[in-house]
């Protein structure tokens, strides 16, 4: 008989789990090999699901099986209430993006609880700004606070090193940075500011150089106190323009450009070549698109020239390959050293158990020692 026995549960929980995960009746019916009519009978309570069907729904909806045995659906904030700025359409809320938002909200709540238990103020240590301020001046001030010079930035070996350093700079301000994968066309990143501590989420499927720009675009949202989902369709708003201008000046300062020999050569020739964009991209450890956009914001190229160069650039970009990461390295990529250190400190102080630590880090015990070695180095 296996797991074909029926289970008595509240059908409202199944409906809640499906809708919150972004699945249609048609999609889940096909996965369960049921007709849509048969599945509707399960959600309406006319028919009880088998335990095997429940396991499959837990797998597809990304929920633990235990949640289906609750007396009523758990109370979760609707996704849209976490953001002050939303895309014009809700098509961006794919299953993967919904899951990333849920994960981020969960880790944010865990971080807050652990910090409070350890007597740490979970509030972000950032100076609040507003849209009336000049984003260029704000970026210059924020950049100066880091103590990182352009000379140091350009000497970093690769963009992965650059991302790691910039991530630690932002996390030192009590802002947690997580990385989850979801379609790049859905969003490049988002931030959660409705609760403390502030959280920035970067799309791990994006190119590493693009992630660096997104990191500071989202940080601009943090200092403005305006949460959003950063997608391509939102690039024309005043808020997005402010955040883009901030990130551009922070990562590629105008003063640094004016001293760069390749940039000066461009100013003399007025001839925009992809070779120049590539050189500046490698030098400042940002994407080629970020360099091109920087030239446009500095009024060095016209809108038409920008769009033509961007189209040409996008055609030349290679398809990004997905690489397998060892569990301990994936944990660091996703959750960051700040969150990992917080969990480990909480375990050391007896605030949580080893079981809790493993659950929060989402890693098996056999990989924990390797994770400790990586965080310590």
UniProtKB/TrEMBL annotation:
Ranges where the HTH cro/C1-type domain occurs: 14-68
SUPFAM superfamilies associated with the record: lambda repressor-like DNA-binding domains (SSF47413)
GO MF annotation terms: DNA binding
Pfam families the UniProt entry points to: HTH_3, Peptidase_M78
InterPro entries: Cro/C1-type_HTH, IrrE_HExxH, Lambda_DNA-bd_dom_sf, Rad_response_metalloprotease
Similarity comment: family membership: Belongs to the short-chain fatty acyl-CoA assimilation regulator (ScfR) family.
Listed name of the protein: ImmA/IrrE family metallo-endopeptidase
